[in-house]
Amino acid sequence: MRFAVFSLILLFVAACESAPKPELPSSADITAETRRLMQREDVKGLALAVVTAGEVRDVMSFGYRNVERKEPLETDTIMYGASLTKAAFAYMVLQLVDEGLVDLDRPIADYLDRPIPDYEGWAVLEGDEDWRRVTPRHVLTHTTGLHNLRFLEPNRDLKFHFTPGDAYAYSGEGFWLLQLMLEEGLGLDVKEEMQRRMFDRFDMPNTSMQWREDFADNLADGYAMDGSFEPHDERSNVAASGSMDTTIADQAKMWRGMLAGEGLSAASRAEWVRPQFPIRTAQKFPTIENYDTSDPRGEPINLSAGLGVETWDGPQGRAFAKGGHNPWTGNIVICQEVEERCLVLLGNSVRAEIIYPEIVEFVLGETDYPWWWTYPALHDPE
To answer: At 322, is the secondary structure helix, strand, or coil?
Structure first.
């Protein structure tokens, strides 16, 4: 009897593995549907890429990079990557792990010659001993206990809101701390490492961690939810948390390469999207205000923090995603492991976030992505 049951299980697994992947809609159908949705919601500009079976199938752009001047958004237009930077940075850090330069579970303080509060910008942590506990894994899983951005704290008084590793709260400040470790502890130049290990590796000529003058002639300005205009910010500081300028063509190549695990050992590629810490908060933002909330919808899909990405169990198996947002920018990438597919969406109009669930379902089918958690004001039915 046991042999019969085991045989049935093997047959079921084999059938699942050999089942054909759901067909993607045609490029023409994606174009038509995206234009329809953009017109319905007055989305000024949006770029899209489809990665499948190790190849970039589609790279598309729609609308305007500047509405006032009627300048079209092109596939080589410079757009703000925002927090998609974090996923790329995490992938770069895993290369350092493979080379034995970084241990994800060794405290950041151990890599530094001085106590963290002695470094410029971190004196505010003096007297709060939790800085001794923070590890690279805490940073990449957003479990440091630090606020997302220090200017959101009263008087910018950055502090630990919980013991590192005890809870989930999205934190850009944690990425600054890990950047400090790489630069001051390991003597690395984060801009150069990202350029060599990521942007050059994946043939991304129009991507940089710092503003370049040659970007000025073809860049996307931003548009808020009410349609108001914001010029593209010339980011002079290199920030692991979100300074990347890029294009949809470059992002397509980057996510194709990362999905394939290029430049990483098999173990590190698996670790990148492994569920590292359960996410059960009611919503992603605001971060500290929600770290001790709960929502029962996270557990059934195993919503979790990976390393620089979020991961969950979708209808087709493991999926992972990363977003990027500010008041004039809406970006998201959703990838499916079994289908070997990614959908990359960059919006220089934050209104694009209104239509993202419909575009994702049209292209990838049902993913069970937790829109209610990422964009509760737009997509929470409860």
So the answer is: strand
